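Incident log, support desk, overnight shift.

02:14 A customer reports that sequence design results differ from what the structure should imply. Their input is reproduced verbatim below. On-call engineer (initials T.W.) acknowledged and began investigating.
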């Protein structure tokens, strides 16, 4: 047996005897480090004759490969053993109650979405969803928003880089595109709500670049404005949990509805506090209207046969109004103190029978 083969066998035995990663690393340095025994042997190759250098070089390379493979295998085994020992020692008694400081909380936005769904589900609405990344057609054209409309401009909309054919995808500015997709994929009667994230270039106390919105859509052969008003009145009474609520519908304009209206609810302001359902003040909360015939056509429906209504409301602002949250930006700051104050218990599931809020 040559000197190199004997040395290799000795190093391999040391690798197998290593009881932890530190000992294994010490063996690696001893053999293959800058001043390791095999490294020093490699430095002597230049002083050897051609035949001797060829033989010694091949033996040294074989030794290095063997050692590297053995070290890698031993390292994996030691890691696995360390993990097994940790799993055996770090056991959790799942029967113990959770510590108060580690309890999670439901975000107000998630809670309000569940509340809205519970209310409209009781009215016979189903939940529809759509992609956050939309095409120009679904976000604008199909909703009767012409090419020159200011909502298409860069200061309102987040656009992606143009594709090879010139088309530019965008982050949806409202959840209204879901209405078009629902009309394309289902036949009337339709009764859906579409909660989800929306995106616009805006940021202050009451606006954020990403926010949450819920759209509602009802399509039938005999739907009229009275149905819209009744639906929204019942929603506001249920959501704000008041028996009597004053509401007014002011004429407005939206490209996708005709006629259109802004909806105000009666309130009383006292300092920083707003009391819903009492007082003589008014507070705007949502927009609505009868679906424009052009929108019905884009959805594949005959406006001579079908008509319907639609509405949209900001979920974040509903949460601010109902739960007294002063700044919209705090919703997205990931401050645990804020979440513990405004959050909800995980099992506090809203229902009309048991009560929406705590």
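02:41 Re-run completed on a clean worker. Output:
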């Amino acid at each position: 047996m040559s000197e190199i083969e004997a040395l290799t066998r000795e190093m391999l035995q040391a690798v197998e005897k290593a009881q932890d990663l530190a000992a294994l690393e010490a063996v690696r340095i001893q053999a293959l480090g800058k001043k390791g025994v095999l490294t020093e042997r490699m430095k002597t190759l230049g002083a050897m004759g051609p035949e001797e250098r060829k033989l010694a070089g091949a033996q040294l390379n074989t030794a290095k490969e063997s050692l590297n493979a053995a070290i890698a295998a031993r390292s994996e085994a030691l890691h696995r053993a360390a993990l097994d020992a940790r799993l055996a020692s770090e056991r959790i008694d799942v029967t113990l109650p959770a510590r108060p400081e580690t309890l999670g909380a439901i975000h107000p936005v998630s809670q309000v979405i569940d509340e809205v769904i519970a209310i409209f589900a009781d009215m016979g609405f189903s939940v529809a969803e759509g992609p956050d990344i939309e095409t120009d057609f679904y976000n604008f054209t199909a909703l009767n928003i012409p090419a020159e409309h200011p909502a298409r401009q860069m200061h309102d909309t987040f656009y992606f880089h143009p594709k090879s054919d010139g088309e530019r995808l965008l982050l949806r500015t409202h959840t209204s595109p879901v209405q078009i997709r629902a009309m394309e994929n289902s036949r009337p009667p339709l009764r859906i709500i579409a909660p989800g994230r929306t995106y616009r270039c805006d940021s202050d106390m009451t606006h954020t670049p990403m926010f949450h919105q819920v759209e509602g859509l009802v399509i039938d052969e005999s739907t009229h404005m009275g149905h819209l008003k009744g639906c929204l009145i019942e929603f506001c009474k249920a959501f704000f949990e008041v028996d009597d609520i004053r509401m007014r519908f002011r004429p407005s304009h939206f490209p996708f509805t005709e006629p259109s209206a802004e909806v105000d609810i009666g309130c009383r302001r006292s300092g920083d506090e707003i009391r819903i359902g009492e007082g003589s003040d008014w507070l705007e909360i949502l927009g609505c209207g009868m679906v424009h015939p052009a929108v019905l056509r884009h959805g594949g429906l005959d406006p001579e046969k079908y008509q319907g209504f639609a509405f949209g409301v900001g979920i974040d602002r509903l949460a601010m109004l109902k739960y007294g949250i002063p700044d919209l930006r705090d919703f997205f700051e990931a401050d645990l103190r804020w979440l513990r104050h405004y959050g909800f218990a995980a099992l506090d599931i809203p229902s009309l029978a048991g009560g929406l809020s705590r």
